[in-house]
Specification:
Keywords: Coiled coil. By secondary structure, the protein is α+β, with helices and mostly antiparallel strands. The protein is built from 11 helices and 18 strands. β7 and β8 form a beta hairpin. α2 crosses α6, α7 packs across α10 and α9 packs across α10.
């Protein structure tokens, strides 16, 4: 038998047209976003979404479609947006192309109408799900209309006999999630009310990177207050003006959960329903790598900022604690034997020295070598005349620069009591290090100690009391000269009188 060649016609079941369209979208609101995105691609400056119980309409003032454009609209796999990837008026880079997605609207209704006007042409096409299924052909009715000069160019897509429900809050959320509401050339209205962009007050971070594929640019915001809208968390990633998704780029730092902002990367490939990036591409791999690097840099900045804020609050608490300690020492004139006059310092053996001149007095910012009278000398100096000390003028706790155990500069507080200085520094020494210790006459408070962290969470008063406990203990240990019982007694007296 001689071999022969025949042909097989590839056919497409009409019922699958709707089914495939439905599968392109994960939720009904994606259909609405697709209709608005088409209006955006058509250079619309206004898009009106009108919701009624029985229908949903999306009306725009874009370029509209002539007869050829309307017929192409219903052509599956049209190459129109590929041929003209940039809109003529606003030079918007169009996303996607006319394809099967429009038929997914039938997942939410039984019929949709497309009315359009362009430069004198006006017509309406109706796609009825039931009528299309019963008809043997692939034709749908097209009705020519009179040109409405007041209406002007544009298009209206109306979903009728809705089979899925929509709510105004859901629609507003869907619009906010995907479209540039702050654009001066694009406004969205919901039932006649314009949807305004939301301004988020907070710390802003600019992002910019150039790649071989195109630019990555945008702005991220860490809000000053917690955002109530949890669903809108994450960083908006846009392609050609349309938000594709929100993501944190696989980083799970808790502070990033609060981050908001928008990043533009028009070169990224996306799926046909504009809801996801095509991730197994070199473009997306580079994009994700750059964004992870930028976010880690921001995290370092935020950590440094948080540490500065934490240190500033702790420093203020330490200043109050030192003032309390000064009052406590003044209430206990018998804690050290030598007398201290109200006008001078005590030298060796309890003899009064000359009053320090203003030129010789320590100044804020001086080094520890120039300023500090170490706490080892306090046993020869901490005694005050009983009675009222209002005439004694002593400076408030000053900030000074000292060297820590690692040889690095550290900011400390020094308070002068009758000419004698007590210096206290707050440093990060690690969870396993002691809560406090004295080194070179400086009381070192460990900010990493679990007890410090616990009291810090409870507020300024509890942290202040905790610092008083540590400071009173260190002072008492030095004054007690190895007498444990005396040290406990002194600590109790100092702590009680300071609070």
């Amino acid at each position: 038998m001689q071999a022969s060649t025949e042909t097989i016609r590839i056919t497409f079941e009409k019922s699958h047209l709707v089914t495939i369209g439905e599968k392109l979208y994960g939720e009904s609101l994606e259909l609405l976003r697709e209709l608005i995105a088409n209006a955006y691609d058509a250079d619309a400056t206004e898009v009106h979404v009108d919701l009624k119980p029985e229908r949903l309409a999306v009306r725009d003032n874009g370029s509209g479609m002539d007869e050829e454009g309307l017929r192409e609209f219903f052509r599956i796999g049209s190459q129109g947006k590929l041929r003209d990837p940039v809109s003529p008026r606003f030079r918007r880079r169009r996303v996607g192309q006319f394809g099967i997605g429009k038929f997914a609207t039938l997942a939410a209704c039984r019929r949709f109408r497309v009315f359009t006007q362009r430069n004198g042409f006006a017509a309406e096409a109706v796609f009825d799900k039931d009528a299309f299924a019963e008809n043997d052909t692939w034709d749908i009715p097209l009705t020519r209309k009179d040109w409405n000069a007041h209406r002007g160019n544009g298009a209206t897509v109306t979903l009728e006999e809705l089979t899925k429900s929509f709510s105004l809050p859901e629609i507003e959320r869907a619009i906010r999630e995907r479209f540039p509401l702050d654009s001066p050339s694009f406004a969205l209205f919901l039932n006649g009310v314009r949807i305004q962009p939301r301004t988020i007050p907070g710390r802003k971070f600019e992002v910019f990177a150039g790649t071989q594929y195109g630019e990555i640019r945008g702005e991220l915001v860490l809000p000053n207050t917690a955002m109530k809208d949890v669903e809108s968390s994450g960083i908006e990633c846009t392609v050609r003006g349309i938000v594709i998704c929100r993501t944190l780029f696989a980083l799970d730092a808790p502070i990033l959960q609060k981050m908001r902002g928008r990043i533009e990367a028009d070169f990224l490939p996306i799926t046909s329903d504009r809801s996801r990036f095509i991730m197994d591409t070199p473009e997306y791999a580079l994009f994700a790598e750059i964004m992870q690097r930028e976010l880690k840099k921001i995290l370092r900045q935020l950590k440094d900022l948080e540490e500065r804020k934490e240190r500033a609050k702790a420093d203020e608490t330490l200043k109050d604690t030192l003032l309390r300690m000064r009052r406590a020492i003044r209430k206990n004139p018998d804690i050290a034997p030598p007398l201290l006059s109200s006008t001078g310092e005590i030298g060796e053996g309890g003899k009064q020295t000359e009053k320090m001149s203003p030129q010789a007095a320590p100044h804020e910012g001086d080094s520890i070598d120039a300023m500090q009278v170490t706490m080892q000398n306090m046993t020869n100096a901490l005694r005050f005349p009983p009675g009222n000390d209002e005439g004694v003028k002593e400076p408030p706790p000053q900030k000074i620069r000292v060297k820590n155990l690692e040889g690095k500069d550290s900011i400390a507080r020094k308070i002068v009591i009758g000419g004698i200085g007590i210096t206290c520094a707050l440093e990060h020494w690690g969870r396993e290090s002691p809560a406090a210790f004295t080194d070179g006459g400086i009381v070192q408070i460990n900010m990493d100690h679990p007890l410090y962290r616990k009291q810090q969470e409870k507020g300024k008063d509890m942290l202040g009391f905790y610092l008083s406990v540590l400071l009173a203990r260190q002072v008492a240990l030095l004054l007690a000269e190895g007498d444990t019982r005396k040290a406990f007694t002194l600590q109790e007296r100092l702590l009680t009188d300071s609070w």
